[in-house]
Amino acid sequence: MSPNTNTYTGMVVLIFVHLYCMTLLTSSESELIECIPSEREALLRFKHHLTDPSNRLSSWNASNPNCCHWDYVVCSHLTFHVLHLHLNTTLSSEYDEYPFPIAVPLAYERSRFSGAINDSVVELKHLNYLDLSGNSFGGMQFPTFLFRITSLTHLDLSASGFYGNIPHQIGNLSNLLHLDLSYVAYGKLPHQIGNLTNLIHLGTSHMLY
Ligand SMILES: *[C@@H]1O[C@H](CO)[C@@H](O)[C@H](O)[C@H]1NC(C)=O
Ligand SMILES: *[C@@H]1O[C@H](CO)[C@@H](O)[C@H](O)[C@H]1NC(C)=O
Ligand SMILES: *[C@@H]1O[C@H](CO)[C@@H](O)[C@H](O)[C@H]1NC(C)=O
Ligand SMILES: *[C@@H]1O[C@H](CO)[C@@H](O)[C@H](O)[C@H]1NC(C)=O
Ligand SMILES: *[C@@H]1O[C@H](CO)[C@@H](O)[C@H](O)[C@H]1NC(C)=O
Q1: pTM, full prediction
Q2: Which stretches are transmembrane (predicted)?
Q3: Which of 41, 139, 161, 189 has the maximum number of C-beta atoms within 10 A of its C-beta?
Q4: How big is the CA angle at 106 (ends 100 and 109), to the nearest 5 degrees?
Q5: Does position 99 have pLDDT exceeding 80, yes or no?
Q6: Contact present, 57 and 71 (Cβ < 8 Å)
Q7: Pairing relation of β-strands 114-115 and 50-51?
Q8: What long-range pairs does 9-17 form, CB within 8 A, spacing at least 24?
Q9: Long-range contacts for 50-59 (Cβ within 8 Å, ≥24 apart)?
Q10: What is the pLDDT at residue 151?
């Protein structure tokens, strides 16, 4: 090979590398996000203990290993850690004008999560958004391990069915900006709530004693 051929080959290779990189950059950003295996296992364990009567979490399965593509899960585009879990069951706002309690549609009733909350969720060390509102964790006291997820900035437990006094460990969630405990039955706020100095929103409407 003459030096010229070498230069030519080098240029062709460079052009291909360039085109390949362009393809990577222009392909959908979310396709490149890969799930962290230990976090996938934690989510699968969490699902295993949850009751999901209308199979809303069907995408959470081992043959669909990229948990960043699962429904209700949001990962970081940079670190791939799970950041958000949107496990709320929100009644459409057309019911807002009805007094509480109301007869809710059967389809809504059937789509609510119930069962047990597994502490595997604590393994999601970067979780900052957890919404469990509108579900049917009836008869269950607050799982205190939820208050060990100190990365949380947004926690919505409104109308989740959890009841009883809010555990004092809530004072450890010092990064919280948004906390909603509306419609929590027999819930009293502990004085440690005063530790949450970053709170911008605290929802306590319709807390029933
Ligand atoms: C796993 O999730 C994928 C993607 O949502 C879905 O197409 C597939 O049917 C699921 N498998 C099971 C066994 O639920
Ligand atoms: C969960 O809440 C968000 C708003 O925070 C809403 O857009 C979404 O529809 C809700 N999901 C369900 C399944 O109710
Ligand atoms: C979470 O699940 C594991 C096994 O899947 C179980 O051993 C453990 O007791 C559960 N923890 C809670 C708090 O339910
Ligand atoms: C949480 O807060 C309590 C006091 O409310 C404290 O005793 C405990 O050490 C804190 N830390 C953890 C990790 O629970
Ligand atoms: C209050 O928050 C700090 C962190 O900012 C934490 O070390 C402490 O344990 C918390 N205290 C209570 C009573 O929760």
Answers
A1: 0.84
A2: 6-25
A3: 161
A4: 65
A5: no
A6: yes
A7: antiparallel
A8: none
A9: 50/113, 50/114, 50/115, 50/116, 50/117, 50/118, 51/113, 51/114, 51/115, 52/113, 52/115, 53/110, 53/111, 53/112, 53/114, 54/110, 54/111, 56/111, 56/113
A10: 98
Ligand 3, atom 9, residue with closest C-alpha:
118
pLDDT tens digits, 32-54: 678 999 999 999 999 999 999 99
Q: Strand pairing partners for 74? A: 84
CB atoms within 10 A of CB 89: 20
Ligand 3 pocket: which of 118, 144, 147 to mutate (most atoms <8 Å of CB)? 118
Determine whether domain 33-203 maps to CATH 3.80.10.10. yes
Mutate which of 43, 44, 48, 120 to test ligand 3's pocket (most atoms within 8 Å of Cβ)?
120
Is the peptide bond between 101 and the residue preceding it cis, with omega within 30 degrees of 0? Answer: yes
Place of tokens 């295996």: 37
